[in-house]
Amino acid sequence: MTREINGKGNITYQSYPGMKKTFDYTTLAYRYTARFPLLTFVGTQVNFWIIANLLLVTIFYLQRQVISQAFQIPLAGRLGSMLFIAVLLGIFYGISLGLTSYYLDRNFFRRQPLGKVILLKTLISLAVLTLEIALMKYVFYDPFTPFVGGLTLTKESWKLLVLLLFVYYLFMTLIISFINQINKKYGPGILLPLLLGRYRDPKEEQRIFMFMDLKSSTATAEALGHLQYSAFIRDCFSDINEVLYPFRAQVYQYVGDEIVVTWPELEGIKHHFCIEFFFACIKQFQQRAEYYRANYGFLPDFKAGVHIGKVTIVEIGEVKRELAYHGDTLNTASRIQSVCNDHGKSLLASKTLLEKVGIHPNMQIQELGRILLKGKTQAVDLVSIHWMETPATKS
User: Fold this and answer.
1) Which pLDDT value is given to residue 113?
2) 3-state SS string for 343-394
3) 3-class SS at 264?
């Protein structure tokens, strides 16, 4: 892959032979989530609640038709108007809950247990539901009465309707909260392909993998003790997660004090994301230096190895289901990271990756030559990469 910089300073990409420019649903979902996290999350909640409201209206309408046919009672009403109201209320409910959940997740909820999060979100949704019912009764009901059959509800009828809505919305809130948590576990754009069975059979992809491991982890664990060390790792990964979206990085695994991140080929190559990401993590740690020194006495120091190649992805497990990547690319990236200490470097990459990513003016490259990695039969050309300036986040 080559780059050309035009007169406006914009970078254009030209593909190398065999490079695929197509994007699947998962890549596009992750891209838009990275660029518009708030809009994506709120939009998803709006869609969920519009569907929930349309389902409720459909149930009401079919029940009314059953009663009308069974007892020969003419019940007037327009389904279209009822659906329109359902969409309006779904938008209001989705935006209200979406905004609330988004900002609470980033601040208050992030360290709360899952059960407590679902419970608190349910209570918040009930409060919003109370406001929505008030809107239905005092804002929407009178103007739309002629369009929904001229139905006038008594005081007792309203009480029964309110009870029904509370039960239905409580149930739907629990379901949607559970879906949100599952979606958070797998990451953007993964849940739908899983439901459709896309990964039941192995699929081949061209991907970039980076293995990031804490330096001097044994000495750090001995200095902090296992409880403080676990809190330290938790905070490190939490800060790394803050950098994921801007650089389109996807978490594959957390293994002890190691985190494995991955990119689809084109996403990782664009803007040198797969290289800049590592140095952006360092910047994130430096910005939180006061916190780390106050709580642990030192800053996190990570090393990383990065490589590109073909892998297969498949859904595995019955008791615990997950997506797994297989292939020599992962093994090579892991082995590259394992020799960082031998050469006194923080970031090592295969020359194969560097040739595809290209050299940025801020990159300082040192070729280490062909190195026989543990478990490999053929030596791999490795380079050390240092970023001269702290990278700015992009989307």
Assistant:
1) 65
2) HCCCEEEEHHHHHHHCCCCCEEEEEEEEECCCCCCCCEEEEEEEECCCCCCC
3) strand
Q: Could you tell me where the beta strands, DSSP code E, fall in the chain?
A: 2-5, 11-14, 203-214, 250-255, 258-264, 302-316, 322-326, 347-350, 363-371, 380-387
CA 163 to chain centre: 35
Residue 369: left (phi > 0), alpha (psi -120 to 50), or beta?
left
Give the chain's domains with CATH numbers: 36-186 (no CATH), 202-387 (3.30.70.1230)
- Specify the pLDDT at position 85: 80
Q: Which residues contact 57 (CB under 8 A, 6 or more apart)?
A: 79, 82, 83, 85, 86
Please check whether residue 288 is in contact with residue 295, taking contact to mean a CB–CB distance below 8 angstroms: no
Tens digit of each residue's pLDDT (9 = 90 or more) over 130-173: 777 776 666 555 544 444 444 556 677 777 877 888 888 888 88
Strands 302-316 and 250-255: unpaired
Instruction: Name the token pair of 390.
Output: 């702290």
Cα distance between residue 365 and residue 370, in whole Å: 15
Rounding to the nearest 10 degrees, give the CA dihedral for residues 244, 249, 253, 255.
Answer: -60
Which residue carries 């007892």 as its tokens? 71
The DSSP-derived string for 281-316 is HHHHHHHTHHHHHHHTSS---EEEEEEEEEEEEEEE
Hey, what long-range contacts does 99-103 have (CB within 8 A, 24 or more apart)?
Answer: 99/38, 99/42, 100/124, 100/128, 101/41, 101/45, 101/180, 102/37, 102/38, 102/41, 102/42
Taking only the tens place, the pLDDT of each residue in 14-54 is: 444 444 444 577 778 777 777 788 888 899 899 999 999 99
